[in-house]
User: Which sequence fits this backbone?
């Protein structure tokens, strides 16, 4: 019993720290890929797919939709290439138990990014009952109104560090001064 308790006290905090750090790496990667490849011509096919699909289908005036377009113009499968390469490296470098934690946390973070992005654009999302979701949705909608800001899907800390964060309240104020009414940005903040 003492050995089990000792293992629990040492291993669990390490696993939690590893999972949190893994999520932050995945989240920063999503933000940097979105910023660097999805919004700059150097991104090639990523740029074309992102602009032609996501920013065309969800543009000002129709940021939400009752139907979600399946995989047309979806860049998500391309992220499997660097993910598999990093996973191979982690398998060689980490003990097996930490490798499993990193793999599980990576998959969970990746799925959370994809799921939340879909929910942000879904009309009458089940998550809309939560204030945290409505706020993140408004932050994401700012990105669709000003494509040079708010690249992160979950963690806005990366946009703050990149200097690309814009508050929905600030955008609402700017547009109200010009006489444009933003129905897509609700009075949340």
Assistant:
């Amino acid at each position: 019993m003492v050995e089990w308790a000792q293992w629990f006290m040492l291993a669990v905090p390490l696993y939690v720290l590893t999972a949190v750090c893994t999520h932050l790496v995945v989240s920063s990667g999503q933000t940097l890929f979105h910023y660097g490849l999805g919004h700059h011509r150097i991104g090639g096919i990523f740029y074309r797919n992102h602009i032609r699909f996501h920013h065309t289908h969800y543009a000002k005036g129709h940021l939400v939709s009752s139907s979600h377009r399946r995989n047309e113009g979806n860049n998500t499968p391309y992220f499997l290439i660097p993910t598999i390469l990093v996973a191979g490296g982690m398998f060689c470098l980490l003990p097996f138990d930490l490798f499993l934690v990193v793999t599980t946390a990576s998959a969970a973070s990746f799925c959370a990014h994809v799921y939340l992005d879909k929910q942000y654009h879904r009309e009458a999302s089940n998550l809309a009952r939560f204030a945290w979701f409505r706020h993140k949705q408004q932050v994401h909608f700012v990105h669709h109104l000003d494509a040079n800001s708010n690249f992160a899907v979950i963690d806005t800390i990366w946009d703050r560090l990149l200097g690309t964060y814009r508050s929905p309240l600030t955008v609402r104020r700017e547009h109200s001064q010009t006489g444009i009414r933003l129905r897509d940005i609700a009075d949340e903040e």
Notes: Residues 20-177 form one domain. The two ends are 50 Å apart (CA to CA).
